[in-house]
Each structure stands twice: as C-alpha cells, then as structure tokens.
Design a protein that fits this description.
This protein is α+β, with helices and mostly antiparallel strands. It has helices spanning 14-24, 29-37, 42-60, 111-142, 165-173, 176-180, 192-197, and strands at 2-10, 70-78, 82-87, 93-98, 101-108. The strands form 2 sheets. Strands 1-5-2 form a 3-stranded antiparallel β-sheet. Strand 3 (82-87) and strand 4 form a beta hairpin. The termini are far apart.
Length: 198
C-alpha cells in the first residue's frame, strides 16, 4: 500500500530541493530521516517535515508499520514564481524571482519486493564488473606469449646425444698418452721438468 504527503508552495527552488530528495529515494523511512537530520541544507528541513507527515499518515490512516516503510518516490515540482524587483542605479531596476516548489513523498510497505529487485540489480552490476575486469586481464596474460623472438629463450635445436656416444667422442679428442698419464705424444714441445731431471 502507498501513502502520500505533499508540501505545497515550499519557499525554495525546485533545483535546490531535488539535490536532497535524490539522496533519500529508495531508502527505508528511518534511514531517510537519519540522512536528512545530518544534512546542512535548507531543503533538508522542508523534506524532513514532508517525510514525517507521510510517516504519520501511514501510521494513523493506513495502519502500517514504520519498520516496513520505504521511500518509493521523492519528487519536487516547480510552483509559482513571485516576481519582485530591486532598484538599481540611474532609476533602473533588476528582476528578482522568488521561486517556490511542491515536494511530494510517496511511501510504500512493499519492502521485500523492492529489496529483492535492488539486490538483483546490484548482483547484475557486480557480475558485469567481474566480466570487465577478466576481459581487461586477458590481454595482459597473453602479452608474454607475444614477445619477439629475440626476448624469448632459445629452444634446443637438436636432441641430446645418447649416453653411449658421449664417452667415445671424449676419447677421440684427448690424446691416448695423456689419458694414460705418460709423456705427451708431441715430442717437439720442450718439457722443462724433463730437462732438469736429465
């Protein structure tokens, strides 16, 4: 069930009052009262009066519980503008517009339905954020694979030789006399230790 309260001909511009009503729209009635109590704006006082009137209407006229009330709408429409003028130099005048507005607040007790819809919307938004972050991280993860060939480590060109072939190759490179421990095979290079022994 919905309950409405309207403050007509409030002496404030609709532009200034809408800044406050945006803050309470969709909140529970108790949360909205807390927000308005700590707001330093003039519009907060007028909107708070209207909200208290709507809560009183819900309690007394519709027999609703305050704990289940939710601010469904908080709308500010433009009222009539009082036109005045201020005297200026050389007999001139500049206009003054004293604006008014109509503040309308609609409360509803369909708190469970509204809360489930809000929770579903929040879950959908958070799911989209997760998907976006994953999509943003995917190119970063693929970047190391796209490195130029110079930066990537070189892959082995051929398979390692079998274990039996390695000792055979080592035997061919070393001279047989050096492997046994005797004098070097080439006698042309002088050995200083051999001359001293003679």
């Amino acid at each position: 069930m919905q309950v409405t309260s309207t403050y007509r001909f409030a002496r404030i511009s609709a532009f200034k009052a809408r800044e406050v009503t945006r803050e309470i729209q969709g909140r529970s009635a108790s949360d909205a009262l807390d927000v308005l109590a700590f707001s330093p704006k003039k519009a907060a006082v007028l909107v708070r009066k209207t909200l208290k009137s709507a809560i009183a209407n819900a309690e007394n006229n519709a027999d609703l519980r305050v704990d289940n009330l939710l601010v469904k709408e908080a709308v500010v429409g433009e009222g009539p503008t009082f036109k005045r003028f201020r005297a200026r130099a050389r007999g001139g005048a500049s206009p003054i517009r004293k604006r008014t507005s109509h503040i309308r607040i609609v409360l509803t007790d369909e708190l469970a339905a509204q809360a489930s819809e809000l929770a579903a919307k929040r879950a959908a938004r958070s799911g989209n954020r997760v998907r976006r972050t994953r999509a943003a991280d995917a190119p970063a993860a693929a970047a190391p694979q796209d490195q130029p060939a110079a930066e990537q480590p070189a892959a082995p060109q051929s398979e390692p030789a079998p274990a039996e072939a390695i000792p055979a190759a080592a035997e061919e490179t070393t001279p047989p006399a050096a492997a046994v421990g005797g004098p070097p095979a080439d006698e042309s290079t002088p050995n200083p230790g051999a001359e001293e022994a003679k």
